[in-house]
Specification:
Rossmann fold, formyl-coa transferase, domain 3, 2 domains, three-stranded antiparallel β-sheet, 16 helices, 13 strands
Length: about 400
Amino acid sequence: MKAILDGIRVLDLTRVLAGPWCTQNLADLGADVIKVEKPGDGDDTRSWGPPFLKHRDGSETRDAAYFLSANRNKRSIAVDIASSEGQQVIRDLARVSDVVAENFKVGQLRKYGLDYESLKAINPRLVYCSITGFGQTGPWSHRAGYDFIIQGIGGLMSVTGEADDRPGGGPQKAGVAVVDLFTGMYATQAILAALFHRERTGEGQYIDSALLDVQVAMMANMNTNYLVSGQPPKRWGNAHPNLVPYQAFKASDMWIILAVGNDDQFRRFCEVGNCLDLTRDPRFVHVPDRIRNRDQLVPILAEIIAQRTGEQWINGLEAAGVPCGPINNLAQVFENPQVKARGMRQSIEREDSGPIELVTNPIRFSETPTTLRRPPPRLGEHTVEVMRDVLGYAPDSIERLLK
């Protein structure tokens, strides 16, 4: 079966995470993604280790695990875009591509003649996506954008971390670069929509994608909580501003999550916990009551939950239909029977290293499944292949460019 984006070619001028995450999504869907990297160094994240991928003999390759996470199913070519010859290679690739994705600073590619207007002139059907920290317009458009900084500027860290009045309270970034990842996902969505538009109209277009825009948008209900009330939300740690109990609790041997979403679930929790008297206490009967009186309810629940093991609670609550679960580390995640059953761990051979363990794309199509076709490439691994097979360069021209 052909992949859903079979026949689509993506010229990938991105590096680090937001852009590569976007283009990896497109590659997983079947697009031919040609990743352009700086000769000698390549994508910054190739050196963001340890850990590094190992050769078959146990020595380290030049590729960090970070790079492997965002670059499967791609081909790598090493091109110096600061040179006139390199710029011509990029223009030739843009001529035969459907999508260009880039995350250079605003205006940087214009001086090389590789901006949207320049490439649109040679390929009017091109979908061109620029990913930057702050977007192409506005007083901060010239600034470099980093996930950590955007989490602070865009409000995420104002609601992430333990409450200020509790031990360890204060702002906390997310454990993974969620702004980069969300931006990569939004950019993927935008590119797919633009390709759909092109199918209907024949027109390409430009996409301006900014980390700050995405960070503000992804605040979701926290945004509307503020816009409706006029009060900025605060940090709640593992608690929830609109539901109680909806947080982590310590059982006798482990931490578990209790996620009670309505009054009926609270009643069923109390049945399992032998504390039905709480359902008759006017302070705790309904969701708004429990929110107003969380400081009285949570200590009571903490004492009750601490009396049993995590497994006892999870088994009992699951049987009663009360949402709950353990807090796993990644070793436990990949041993989880559901994760195993869904095939979320995949292995693929790379010539220099042997098997590489990667994570499966989570999208499940019935007719056009995603596939793991290529391991994350070595730097410049496909330079000659792309020049020969995609661009049709003659052998002497390729040799000259390599030199």
